[in-house]
Amino acid sequence: MTDTTTRYDDDARGPHAPPPPPAPASAAARPVVPARGTRRGAGLGEVAFDAGGFWGDRQDVNAAATLAHCERWMEELGWLENFDRVARGERTVDRPGWQFSDSEVYKLMEAAAWESARSGDAGAEALFVRLADRVTAAQDDDGYLTTAFGHPGLEPRYSDLAMGHELYNMGHLLQAAVARLRTAGADDAFVAAGRRVAEHVCREFGAGGRDELCGHPEIEVALAEFGRATGEPRYVEQARIFIERRGHGRLPVRPLLAADYFQDDVPVRDAEALRGHAVRALYLTAGAVDVAVDTGDDGLLESLVRQWRRTVERRTYLTGGMGSRHQDEGFGDDFELPADRAYCETCAGVASIMVSWRLYLATGEAEYADLIERTLYNVVAASPSADGCAFFYANPLHLREAADPVEAAGVHMRAEGGLRAPWFDVSCCPTNVARTLASLQAYAVSVDGPAALSVLQYAAGNVSVELDDGRLAVSVATGYPHDGTVVLSVTDAPATPVTLRLRVPHWARRASLWSTTAAGGARRVDAAPGWAHVSQVLAAGDEIRLVLGDEPRLTWPDSRIDAVRGTVAVERGPLVLCLESPDLPAGMEIYGFVLDASAPPQPANDGASVRLLPRPGRDASGGRLPFGPCEDPADGTPAQRPDAPGGQPAEGGLEVRLIPYYRWAERGPSTMRVFLPAST
Amino acid sequence: MTDTTTRYDDDARGPHAPPPPPAPASAAARPVVPARGTRRGAGLGEVAFDAGGFWGDRQDVNAAATLAHCERWMEELGWLENFDRVARGERTVDRPGWQFSDSEVYKLMEAAAWESARSGDAGAEALFVRLADRVTAAQDDDGYLTTAFGHPGLEPRYSDLAMGHELYNMGHLLQAAVARLRTAGADDAFVAAGRRVAEHVCREFGAGGRDELCGHPEIEVALAEFGRATGEPRYVEQARIFIERRGHGRLPVRPLLAADYFQDDVPVRDAEALRGHAVRALYLTAGAVDVAVDTGDDGLLESLVRQWRRTVERRTYLTGGMGSRHQDEGFGDDFELPADRAYCETCAGVASIMVSWRLYLATGEAEYADLIERTLYNVVAASPSADGCAFFYANPLHLREAADPVEAAGVHMRAEGGLRAPWFDVSCCPTNVARTLASLQAYAVSVDGPAALSVLQYAAGNVSVELDDGRLAVSVATGYPHDGTVVLSVTDAPATPVTLRLRVPHWARRASLWSTTAAGGARRVDAAPGWAHVSQVLAAGDEIRLVLGDEPRLTWPDSRIDAVRGTVAVERGPLVLCLESPDLPAGMEIYGFVLDASAPPQPANDGASVRLLPRPGRDASGGRLPFGPCEDPADGTPAQRPDAPGGQPAEGGLEVRLIPYYRWAERGPSTMRVFLPAST
């Protein structure tokens, strides 16, 4: 965590090298398999989260409820029938759904494929096949496949590349095909359809073809991974062409919107930070990392690492959320991080994890896994309701006016945050959450070369990986994130020395690690934020105990973030906490206080207890105009004004509890804030 | 300023009473002539601003440069030819301009009409006639007149009422016709075209017609005033129908946007504050005030006063700017007033003045004139460049990244603020500024009943009005807004007592008023914020001296405005000041300091001088992640971090100058902020 230079692995193979030897079968089912590098993520068969644990529970709800929920909504809204109509050759009149609705079907298929591999759930397999049949029937002979263009009654193919999302849709189809190939292990009809799509795209947009771009990146990361999965370097090459083609002003500037919306303002390798539409920027970056890694483009990779760092240091919320503007669903300027108008789209959280994961695999740095953890607990986990059938789209850190419950009843037209909705007019988030949860254990550990395992995310469960000299298996016992102690028990190990690396989160300033052998020897290992590791011969019965601590703590924001000056947040472990109106006395407004920063927050259930004090004066409510009390030139002090209505704590203070942010709005419409005005 | 109850005049005539007797000819040329009430605004012939004064200069530049600038751009872009093509009956292919481009032509015509009356400028008259000929030639036999619908090659009439802007366009035509009728004094061909438009609208959308609404309010305020100008109560009645029809969900909810965008979520009289798209909300409110006043609907008027008050107290910027969100170009929630993402569209400033002026005429309260002053100096005056040929569209109070000068060269697609542009793709602001400047003296004074004159806005010039017992004429000498002393010299007066009311701005806490008679007697008059007045027989040579003061002052924002907590603004007279990067030493960032709030700001040229101190620590730049330094549980104090790059003042402080906000970005692309982090 203290090294600021860029490092990444390079196994010295040249560009377009063939993929490395396949991982063991249990490791094959994973979303990202770089062609180079000595580090690999876990296959879905190598890690299992315990049922009833934080993530295991969410995975089970995802499988049992969310997948069917998504299919039902898409059927009801006609997004699935769009494929049938094309397959039947019918003329389309008033096609339902946005031009990107196909992609939701593919993300659901991807989720079903991962889920099938994760749990062996026959329902997920049946869902995949059911959808695949309808999708593949709509493919044109030349491989083109979308339901919004190029068929009777629709605009011609590629007539609106900026906003048409055709390549975006086909990109998500390819990601579903990657999941299918790596989980079913077979080159079935859907994978074959994917090959035809990829060939079509290379033919149409390759060298000598259309010198154009899709307005929404996605095809890049998809072609790269499909190329990896199929061993076809031409697909990776086509991804490279798209990456290099971007940033030269091919896409139109749109009225009233920012120039960088499409990331077509600056070449990818020349950019300084992520900018414009957040999901677009992040999908593009994920694809660019893939291209940089697979082609050995070290300059590009270094640039992407720099961009990630500046983005995380200056354009990322405490929750890990990205996207400071509702306008353009976009990043803001450096330090433009308003809590109230934070967009922090759930999909941007998913996409941020995609980028961080690729950079972790390329570099092995803990900071990427740190951000993945922060984003998983405070963005992705915040989105779905407990029953898996309603979702947050935007994830603001402050809501002043409670949402209207009526709005959540049906298809939600808006994305303001405040109430989870079953479906959205633009419904990218539910299926993105689904595919992420279904494959979540892939991000939990990595195998680093011949004899090392890194544990990145802590959850009760089991890990079993094949190292060069044999199997390493550990069971993980923890109440994380609500308990800061993680106990790893070795159940199987090679006879030769192995390295076990444990990530120590940046917030765990006083972590400790104890390694105890089955024979009874115990020693304390250095555990500063970053990595703690044991390198030795391990044996069944050995135990490694990581104590990260779980005291709530105050987190002071960077003073350059104007929007939260004079406030403080409270965190506990990896969880950002928040104050929600149901936890305030009746009649007290969410702004009627300051937090007593001299009193340390105390643990309380899964959150914390803090003391609130009356808000000091200085407001305009005593006047008629909002321009604030004017300084009286006579004495130079700001006028103290009577307070506004809304109620305040008594002079002696008021203890209130903060809850984990991911659980807010579970008790109905509410107001909420993460950053609390602080006493000074 | 201390009375919080709602009061307005009621002359006890019933609804739909005929208009009051006409004002003298010199008073006829004014934009708002309520059918009821004892108070009237000045005619353009009753007030003249001195050439070279603050507003006189801007009016002259407007006449000499802006009107021609706007005509030239609209000719070049084909927005004028749109009328010719319709007149010729040609089929339209690829019509240039948005569906509301017609309205820019009408706003320019309105400006030309006022300008012609203000200065007698033959060029302005010729411009009006030139445009009127082309516009009227495009009118359909039944009165319908737009160039974006209902003609060969275009969509049918009223096929997209939500976004088509047909009634909006025709509303602006009617406002141009009002200006023509009241300045030329004749019912010419253009006014006749206006009558046909109004009749068409009443026929089409009246009782028994289409039960629909235009997505962008404007027709309401236009029909009401055209009804007043022509003495036709059916037009006011149609305005009333549109006001009552709104708020029942006739317009569609749009994806990803706020429900209140069109103000169709809540009936006008039931709303609590202005909300949604700011210009839409303000135009609607202006029309609603007109309807309430003319129909004697006291309940509606009281509601509108309440809405204005809450909007001003909780949703209005220090500059008077309205619109907290780029998304939807909209109002935010209460206290959602980010400085950086302030939209504060110039047109919303114009529209806010329209509302405040109508409420002033209805109630006579000084607070409305206060807000008009604030908005004129800090929004409207900020928009045009000194040469009158470039304009701000958005008026943020904080810019972190300097604009790209290339962007300003041609038609500006965006509205981010930071650089004035000659024209915009959506170019509503230039013509709105033009029509406001051309008629500005109408807002300077009011005649209140038979024997009283209120002076509302201070500018060097002359006022001459007919009271019941004779002419009252005063000359005004002042360097306002840069000098806080205003001297009124009586040059003519009736032989009977008159009341002269002078507005004392809310910020002038220690104002004094001296009344001196030609005979040599002098007395001091009470001059607390609100009104100061003398009621006596006046005579030529009498002098009234109002001393408002012009010391710069600190203005502390309401503590409920999260976005500017811990900051302070500096104002001087009616001017909001700002710190702009050219006034900082090279290398110092716009965030690298705090203002020393213990040192009173000092006058410096037309702005102020303040002392900056180094910014105290507490930022994340020493770490790798942006999550802020964590409190160390051991000692409970926030970690102090080394500072970020960017330069800071030396320990002893640094004197810098602040300039009036309206002059920012005159020295090329810059960063800027109004609210300065303050030492505590």
Structural commentary:
2 copies of one chain form a homodimer. Chain A has 680 residues and is α+β, with helices and mostly antiparallel strands. Chain A folds into 3 domains: 34-443, Glycosyltransferase, CATH 1.50.10; 445-547, Immunoglobulin-like, CATH 2.60.40.1180; 552-677, no CATH class. Chain A is 31% helix and 16% strand. Chain A is built from 14 helices and 24 strands. Chain A has helices at residues 54-77, 81-88, 101-119, 122-136, 161-164, 166-184, 189-205, 219-230, 233-245, 278-295, 298-314, 346-363, 366-380, 428-438; strands spanning 39-41, 47-49, 398-399, 411-412, 423-424, 445-448, 452-455, 461-467, 470-478, 485-492, 498-504, 512-516, 522-525, 530-536, 543-547, 552-555, 567-572, 575-580, 594-595, 602-604, 607-613, 654-660, 672-673, 676-677. In chain A, strands 3, 16, 17, 18, 19, 20, 21, 22, 23 and 24 form a 10-stranded antiparallel beta sheet that branches. In chain A, strand 17 (567-572) and strand 18 form a beta hairpin. The radius of gyration of chain A is 26 Å and the shape is globular. In chain A, 60% of the residues are buried. The interface between A and B is large, with 94 and 94 residues.
